Model the fold of this input.
Amino acid sequence: MQDPVAIIVGAGPSGLATSACLNQHSIPHIILEREDCFASLWKKYSYDRLHLHLKKQFCELPHMPFPASSPTYIPKDHFIKYLDHYVSHFKISPIYQRCVESASYDEATKKWKVMVRNVSSSETEEYSARFLVVASGEACNPFIPEVEGLNSFTGDALHSTQFGNGKAYRDKNVLVVGSGNSGMEIALDLANHGARTSIVVRSPVHILSREMVHLGLVMLKYFSLGIVDSLMVLFSKFVYGDLTNYGMRRATEGPFFMKVAYGKYPIFDVGTFDKIKAGEIQVLPAIQNIRGNEVLFENGRSHSFDAIIFCTGFKRSTNKWLKGDDYLLNEDGIPKPRYPNHWKGKKGLYCIGLSRRGLYGASADAQNTSDDIKSLV
Done:
């Protein structure tokens, strides 16, 4: 192979999309992936009932639409098959089990020098290229917050990446910590499998149906974010009523504003709310501490649980290995420049899929980046 013009870090959908676009331009490059497969979050670390929350046209990668026969909302297994076909079709060949230890720009050679640990042999390897593309994703390292007494918990405590389905939890008391979409959907799966399910909802939320979200995305092409948010809140109040009746609070800032400003998605309701309304899922406030199998909550009440599932998100690790970048990414691994200029840094540095705009945003980033590299080589 020719010396690579670009190095892509990460073989998730963002990295695959970038590779496909670079291949379309015949630009030699390599992908470094720390796992032993591409799209590892989908293949190894996601729960069984996961579906893409947006309609399929918002989730396609560049140069390959979903088949017309695909369901509107793509299930996990379908998406994995789509990615398998994508990798095969565009002849994408990641280098697996390569954990990036550092990446720095060499002023003398005008290239990025990437130091990598070979996971299987523990040997250090060095790669260099004119361009570096950070595609390691928003969901990089699973995060469990520090909770007083968690180490004394006598049941199972796991992150959502370790949860497959609720079959093993039938007739057990299970606490889900985290009220994002993963938490809400895992709580639903547990309740459907006969677990006595509770969920911690600390922060104010927006609950929208898939249809509302799709309508909102269409309306954003024609109306201001403020107008669309006002309508979404109105629809949500009409459908879901006063959330305080169920132990939750509706956020004061609009759902699409919160998505843009903080990367906080509204809850896409796929049946969880009906379970909460029926009392099949109990909503609880923040945890104060844990003592054995007893969990004390901020309202002063305690409940015993057989398992705790932390749906508390991820931390990005770019700040640990990306050296010398004071322009593109912040300490949390999110772009400093505002959309739509978030994807391009300095000295040939790019980032893909970190704009909190999902697969749709990652696809646009991949095309912009590959086109920009093409114009420079």
